[in-house]
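Anyone up for a design puzzle?
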């Protein structure tokens, strides 16, 4: 089967090109893609050649990890289902994670149309739902996972490091749980998209020490950008039995002194990936309206202009938040 995909052909090189897609099997679903959501942080890391897969950093001597089909999330309408598929039918609007592709460094990716994927990685959208609102569901789940992991009592203070999408959704989840939420960011435009009940601070404009002095004792820290230095600076303001959630990619620099955590009996959480129960809860959060996705979309491009989308991201990352590729269904 032939299809189209966004391919990282080499370091910092992006092309929209024809690809070979394996034929579907009896447990598979074939989806005509409508929207695919770029995960700026993770995909940028792959585009720079920093990862070989998942959370595994590229090291000298590893195979060069190109070409690779970018991304891992999209929505669309079901074209066909395998004979063993029961919970999805032709014509359903669905979300799908990474689907199959041939001839790449890894055999799957997100920005691929049509999507051929095992039905276990397909979620039916609520009736009448906006397909674009759910097209970043895996990434939204990462934020939900960060915000739901730590034990938290209503009114306790939680600090989120990073004003990107994961930071935004982690902050929304913590707010939904009753926390007093503080977000540390570096971009005015991103911080302006925070819920008005979340306290956003620009660390380019205000010293971190001054921000921490204005906060109550901190029970939760969620690092979405991989800044060990910022976590270390915040640590003295963290309470006994507090929680540190580490979600940013740390490459080879993520060295943690467990004995230091033991001084205050801190808990370290290391969320990664996605599982069905969390995806189900994230989908429900979007449907209920407390996990907001569409207001975070800053840019939309036709899929065939993916290279232009990436030029925009790389040249002005601070102005980009949610970047969606729109695909023609028919």
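Challenge accepted. My sequence:
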């Amino acid at each position: 089967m032939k299809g189209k995909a966004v391919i990282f052909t080499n370091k910092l090189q992006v092309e929209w090109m024809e690809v070979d897609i394996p034929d579907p099997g009896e447990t598979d679903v074939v989806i005509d893609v409508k929207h695919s959501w770029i995960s700026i942080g993770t995909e940028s890391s792959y585009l720079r050649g920093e990862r070989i897969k998942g959370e595994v950093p590229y090291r000298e001597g590893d195979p060069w990890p190109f070409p690779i089909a970018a991304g891992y999330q999209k929505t669309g309408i079901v074209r066909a289902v395998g004979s063993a598929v029961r919970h999805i039918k032709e014509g359903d609007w669905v979300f799908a994670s990474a689907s199959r592709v041939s001839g790449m460094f890894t055999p799957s990716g997100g920005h691929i149309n049509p999507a051929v994927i095992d039905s276990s990685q397909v979620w039916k959208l609520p009736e009448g739902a906006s397909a674009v609102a759910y097209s970043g569901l895996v990434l939204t789940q990462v934020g939900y996972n960060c915000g739901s992991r730590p034990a938290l009592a209503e009114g306790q203070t939680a600090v989120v490091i990073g004003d990107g999408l994961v930071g935004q959704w982690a902050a929304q989840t913590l707010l939904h749980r009753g926390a007093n939420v503080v977000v540390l960011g570096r971009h005015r435009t991103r911080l302006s998209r925070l819920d008005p009940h979340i306290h956003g601070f620009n660390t380019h404009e205000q010293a971190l020490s001054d921000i921490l002095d204005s906060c109550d004792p901190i029970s939760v820290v969620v690092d979405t950008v991989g800044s060990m230095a910022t976590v270390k600076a915040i640590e003295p303001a963290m309470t006994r039995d507090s929680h540190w959630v580490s979600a940013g990619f740390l490459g080879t620099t993520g060295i943690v002194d467990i004995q230091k955590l033991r001084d205050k009996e801190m808990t370290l959480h290391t969320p990664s990936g996605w599982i069905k129960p969390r995806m189900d809860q994230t989908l429900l959060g979007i449907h209920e309206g407390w996990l907001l996705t569409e207001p975070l979309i800053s840019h939309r491009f036709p899929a065939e202009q993916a290279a232009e989308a990436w030029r925009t991201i790389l040249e002005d990352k601070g102005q980009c938040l949610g970047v969606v590729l729109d695909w023609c269904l028919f």
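A detail worth pointing out: Residues 212 and 237 are 7 Å apart (CA to CA).
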